[in-house]
Amino acid sequence: MRAYDELMAFQRESEALGQVAGRLSWDQETMMAPGSGAQRAEEMGALEAVLHTRRTDPRVGDWLTVSEADVQNEIEAAQLRLIRHSYDRVKRVPGDLAVALARVTSTAQGKWAEARASDDFAAFAPVLEEVLALKREEGAALANGGDVYDALIEDYEPETSASDLQAMFDAMRPGLVALRQAALDRLEAPSLQGTFDLDGQLALSRELAQVFGYDLNRGRLDLAVHPFSSGSGDDVRITTRVSEHDPFNCLYSTIHEVGHACYEQNIDHAYHLTPAGKGVSMGVHESQSRIFENQLGRSRPFCHWLFGRMTEVFGDYGIKDADDFYACVNRVHRGYIRTEADEVQYNLHIMLRFDLERALVSGDLQVNDLEAAWNDRFKADFGYDVEKASDGCLQDVHWSVGLFGYFPTYALGNVYAGCLYQALRQEIPDLDTQLGQGDLTSATTWLRENLQQHGGRFRPQEVIAKASGKTPDSSPLMTYLEQKFSALYSG
Q1: Global pTM?
Q2: 17 is in which domain, residue-wise?
Q3: Which residues of the sequence carry a binding annotation for Zn(2+) (predicted)?
Q4: Which residue among 257, 264, 343, 371 is the active-site one?
Q5: What is the pLDDT of residues 31-46, one digit of tens each?
């Protein structure tokens, strides 16, 4: 047997165990009883110990050395590149640190949910301090003398640095702020009225999931405090949340998570349970969820179709026609919650988090000062006060589970989505007609064939460039936003 074949057989078992760990996390957020948290933390720690041992096994290094000298095709080269990247990184992290992180983030996740429910940041701060201390230690080990925050970003968006992201944000901010102000000054949109049956929301969510191509035979839809997608290959699960006064929260959270899930379900089956068998980066992942949710799901023609379906399900809800429904879905509005933000303001929410977490990781901002710093920054950026922690620094789950460096990939995903949408419209001239019929087949097929099927075969910016025909930059996104919202707020 070739060294490559031995390596891939070993790797397949590691990938399978990683999927089991992911399923434990899914269960914790959806099904697990509240009193089971301490035991789950021990379980996660034990499984991480096994995974860390496998990931740092000296045989992996030996197999890599031999295999890298005997590469027979492009796919083998991609698999070895991904394994090498992971192996070289994980070797720098001590095993006891990896186990400690798994345990404390499992515990912190439950404490975050409790603190969020009671709007009590002080109750969450001590465990967040533990998570942050461990992430700083991990980042320092990974950085090997380089920038700690850059080392953490590498887990989510390889070959991207904080300085690259800062330059992108600095270029985007003036246009976003100007567009927001113009929209807030002029855009008057109707709002939903009444209450919306929760079972009806979930039934329509399941319908929308399938309209966008999600295979429920290899997945499921459940409820969670914070919507997410989990898994890859033939077991990809999504969650959403419901509010009796805001069905858009449920419906568009579902469409967003379906974008993530379809990416994972549509990867070439030959790559399953291999390093190439999952999304190549979180920025690319977010490009799929954001193009599903926004450019497709919030488009005028699709909104016209969805207006009809919502009327059939819920009856009269205060919106007179499809055009008013489109304006309602895309209303630029004051609000606190990132996941509920309109397209114009969404990236401003990300820029806030990006700056705060960089300061936390560097030590320029202390955990005990985070709530005040968040509230001050939000007032400066958005112009009004945060009244409660669940609308501020407790609204997102990410820091509780140690995802420092993750937030900027949301904005990067929007940029990638802008590039993809520009190409998609050129390739499918009658896209609007299809969307108006609730038919996403051509759009989702194009995304599957040009991007999703490749999994981790290509580097992040490479796969976006191959699909869109251009080096990624923010200009297509900004053009899309300016054209869409200028038309909306000009009447």
Answers
A1: 0.94
A2: 3-146
A3: 256, 260, 286
A4: 257
A5: 999 999 999 999 999 9
